[in-house]
Amino acid sequence: MTINSIIYSISQFEHSLLAFIDVGGIVMWPLFGCCLWMLWLASQIVFKSYDLSYIRTTTPTCPDWLNHRLDSIALRQAYQQHYFDLQGVKLLSMIAPLLGLLGTVSGMIAMFTAGADYGFHDPAVISAGISMAMVTTQTGLFIGLSGALLAFFWQRKLNKIQRIDLVRGYHAE
Questions:
Q1: 86 close to 155: Cβ distance less than 8 angstroms
Q2: CA 43, CA 15: separation in Å to the nearest integer?
Q3: Strand, helix or coil at 25?
Q4: How much is the pLDDT for 53?
Q5: Can you list the alpha helix ranges (DSSP code H) found in the chain?
Q6: Which of 5, 20, 96, 109 could disulfide-link to 143, CB 3.0 to 4.6 Å?
């Protein structure tokens, strides 16, 4: 694959994405932002280690009880950051379908407004509003479902790590 074909493919993808957003109307921009924010939070899963056991602050000059306490504090801070990111994904997965519903209502209002202005005998008038309504609904549901699945698996992984650390004796109090 040459550089020119890659650039052409990226350009076509960008054009298709902007056309899809244009069909959905103004509500697609917050949905797109919601999707990007969720992807950023999901990247935290990939680039931050799942194994929180790497956080060990053992220093040879401190007594064992102090090392254990420092480890517990460091683990608690790491868990809190992971759970904070997880809560962001959960929130975005709840907001996305509501934004899709807002787009549905906006599309139906646009359809009825155009029908009142031009009459309902023209199928193009009706189909534009219905298309706007369905695209935003589909996008909101897709983003919400993806986020809910991501949050579910992320929560399970964090719970598993926390159980392992409890067995080891390092607990985030």
A1: yes
A2: 25
A3: coil
A4: 52
A5: 3-24, 28-47, 64-118, 123-168
A6: 96
